[in-house]
Design brief:
Blueprint lengths: L1 H14 L1 E2 L3 H8 L5 E8 L2 H11 L7 E9 L2 E12 L4 E8 L5 E9 L9 H4 L12 E2 L2 E2 L6 H21 L5
Parallel strand pairs: 7-8
Antiparallel strand pairs: 1-6, 2-3, 3-4, 4-5, 5-6
Helix pairs in contact: 3-5
């Protein structure tokens, strides 16, 4: 019995993968000599309601931390991080938003579900250039992942929530 428990624990640990740290991910999209500034805002009840209505997804926290990347005083974009439970384990990802308010990239930083449920990089690329929330739905702007529907649902909903948060609450910089 103890051997079975140890095998299950080891399998669980081996399936967890951290691909990038937050700082590594930020450096990919805002490389040196870019300046990246961390900002925090507190959502009002009215903002939370608008975000939830537009994204059709729950807002878990009224505290939003985001990053603004600049190169020689020119805005490069924004980055927001989120962690979602896929089935029973979390996944952490970053959404990079261009100055034109479109998704520049979605980068998976950590994924603790079995590798079979891991969305491929090509699938994540579907979000690029999207800015209209109506385009960020499975089977309507975003293809599903065969065998990893829960991953696709969680990440698509998360990107929609981040886009709505960006649109409604984050002050746009120049």
């Amino acid at each position: 019995m103890r051997s079975l428990f140890m095998t299950l624990m080891l399998t669980s640990i081996l399936s967890a993968q951290v691909f990038l740290t937050k700082d590594e991910a930020l450096k990919i999209y805002f490389p040196s000599p870019s300046a990246v500034e961390r900002k925090t805002l507190f959502l009002t009840d009215a903002q939370v309601e608008k975000i939830q209505t537009q994204a059709r997804a729950n807002v878990d926290s009224k505290i939003v931390t985001y990053y603004v990347g600049r190169h020689e005083n020119h805005l490069q974009g924004y980055a927001l991080f989120d962690t979602r439970t896929i089935r029973t384990e979390p996944a952490t990802y970053m959404v990079v938003i261009s100055p034109d308010s479109s998704v520049r990239a979605v980068e998976l930083l950590a994924f603790y579900e079995p590798e079979d449920y891991l969305p491929p990089t090509r699938w994540l690329a579907q979000f690029q250039q999207k800015k209209v929330l109506d385009e960020v739905w499975l089977k309507r702007g975003v293809q599903n992942i065969a065998g990893a529907t829960l991953s696709a649902q969680a990440l698509t909903e998360g990107v929609r929530r981040i886009l709505a948060t960006f649109r409604i609450a984050i002050p746009k910089e120049h």
